[in-house]
Design a protein that fits this description.
There is one protein chain. The chain is of the alpha/beta class. It has one domain: Purple Acid Phosphatase, chain A, domain 2 (4-Layer Sandwich). The protein has 10 helices and 19 strands. The strands form 4 sheets. Strands 2, 3, 6, 7, 16, 17, 18 and 19 form an 8-stranded mixed beta sheet that branches. The protein has a 7-stranded mixed beta sheet with strand order 1-9-10-12-13-15-14, covered by helices on one side. Strands 4-5 form a two-stranded parallel ribbon. The N terminus is likely disordered.
Length: about 375
């Protein structure tokens, strides 16, 4: 890990400072976070000759699948308030990340081989940013539901979102494989956090056509990790230049509450390669979260803003907030020192609302039980 401590780092002017993207970047770097004020003079004062202070703790909030279908679609008439009921836990974190389970843009045609196809206008990016979300992954099995024709407009919208106010960064999709696997880098009070998005789509087009959506050296698409070599290499490269590495994956089996053996193996390999936090979605229900070796894994974050709440298994959701201690010496690893769920339930309007009372206790019991088959502590 790159060591982020030092006087220059602690003199950061804002909580989260983006690194300017290259001109041909298809995936822009992370926007600034304004969840905390800039440090005061007293907080950054050091004694000449004294060792550099260790980096300060910070928080990462993650949530599951979001889209704007059905009853959620009309909420984009006012993007600034589209997800207003659920902004609190996401906006309070230094860095907030979700999965946007939809094609973004206009035009194209629904993929005839798919039962469900989703498409949202570019205002979806503004709605997410206004909800306090900093980074969104588009590496999933709905990103190209309407084919490749909308991609040009989507990439234009991604660039615009990166410079909007509030800004939003996108991972997991790009004009080629290099761009799709490129990490977004966010600077939080001197600590550099790299976020990577990837999907494990099927290579069998009769079972899942989205395996044909993978970005290649010459074509746009998603960051596909069916063969995880490219993803593992991207994590290792990010680990060489960042203090904390977060991987957001689209993986697993829909409807399953336990991760597969392949998920558990890949999670362990990612942690070994340098990932500090590995999270994912696609099962459409919660799966276990906890420490795995030197990293922290949340296998399934469930649905979050979803047009069809369904039974409790798919409508129970929440925001997982991780408190992270950055490495304070060269070659060290970041550490998740605390985790807290903000439990919620998706209503008939598609929007999750915070649970209270006995429902919170039931949620905590359920998440504790899910760790058993996830192999985490």
């Amino acid at each position: 890990m790159r060591w982020a401590a030092g006087v220059a780092a602690t003199l950061a002017l804002c909580a989260c400072t983006p690194t300017a993207p290259a001109a041909d970047d298809a995936v822009p770097t992370s926007p600034p976070s304004t969840s905390e004020p800039a440090p005061t003079v007293d907080e950054t004062t050091t004694t000449p000759g004294a060792p550099d202070p260790p980096p300060r703790l910070f928080t990462i909030a993650v949530a599951g699948d979001v889209h704007f279908e059905g009853v959620l679609q009309r909420r984009l008439d006012d993007p600034a308030t589209a997800l207003a009921p659920v902004t609190g836990a996401l906006a309070a974190a230094d860095l907030a990340i979700v999965n946007l389970e939809t094609s973004v843009g206009t035009g194209g045609s629904p993929d005839p081989s798919k039962r469900f196809t989703f498409q949202a206008p570019p205002t979806a990016f503004r709605a997410l940013a206004e909800a306090g979300i900093d980074v969104v992954s588009l590496a999933n099995n709905h990103a190209l539901d309407f084919g490749r024709r909308p991609l040009a407009g989507m990439f234009s919208a991604i660039r615009a979102a990166a410079t909007a106010e509030p800004p939003l960064a996108v991972v997991g999709v790009g004009r080629n494989a290099d761009a799709a696997f490129r990490a977004v880098r966010s600077t939080i009070r001197g600590t550099v956090v790299a976020t990577i998005g990837a999907t494990l789509a099927s290579t069998d087009p009769t079972a899942d056509p989205t395996g044909q959506w993978a970005a290649t050296a010459r074509s746009a698409g998603t960051a596909d990790a069916v063969d995880p070599a490219r993803l593992l290499r991207a994590v290792g490269e990010a680990d060489d230049s960042a203090d904390v590495v977060v991987v957001y994956l689209h993986w697993g089996i829909q409807g399953e509450s336990c991760p597969t053996a392949d998920q558990r193996t890949l999670a362990a390999d990612l942690v070994e390669e340098g990932a500090d936090v590995v999270v994912g979605s696609h099962a459409h229900q919660l799966q276990g979260d906890g420490h795995l070796g030197r990293g922290y894994v949340a296998y399934g974050l469930g649905n979050y803003a979803w047009y069809s709440p369904g039974p409790p298994e798919t409508s129970t959701t929440g925001v997982l907030t991780l408190t992270v201690r950055p490495p304070h010496q060269p070659g060290g690893r970041a550490q998740v020192v605390d985790r807290a769920w903000t439990p919620a339930q998706i209503g008939t309007d598609g929007v999750p609302r915070r649970l209270s009372g006995a429902a919170v206790a039931a949620f905590e019991a359920r998440t504790a039980a899910l760790r058993g088959c996830a192999g985490v502590r």
